Amino acid sequence: MIVAFSVSPVGVGEDVGEYVADAVRVVRESGLPNRTDAMFTSVEGEWDEVMDVVRRAVAAVEARAGRVSLVLKADIRQGVTDGLTSKVETVERHLAG
């Protein structure tokens, strides 16, 4: 499965980069395939391990902010691995052709 999620503190002002970095650090240290862009962090793995990473990323932000916003989207598809790469490669192939 691939989960794209965004976690952000609420009520700490406009500059939330250091809080978001705490969440992204959890994802990167998980060892699961992941990507971060301007809006979301995507992580790929089995249900329990991905959801555990999301839970810990939220907890990392919550430890410094009393309120946290979480947006999550999941692609649950059995038997697919390396979806983070293969989905993008498919789109790029269609754009090139």
UniProtKB/TrEMBL annotation:
SUPFAM superfamilies: MTH1187/YkoF-like
UniProt-listed Gene3D superfamilies: 3.30.70.930
An annotated GO cellular component: cytosol
Stretches assigned to the Thiamine-binding protein domain: 3-92
InterPro entries listed in its UniProt record: MTH1187/YkoF-like, Thiamine_BP, UPF0045_domain
Pfam families membership: Thiamine_BP
NCBIfam families assigned to the protein according to its UniProt record, in alphabetical order: MTH1187 family thiamine-binding protein
Family membership: Belongs to the UPF0045 family.
Name of this chain's protein: UPF0045 protein
Gene source species: Streptomyces fulvorobeus
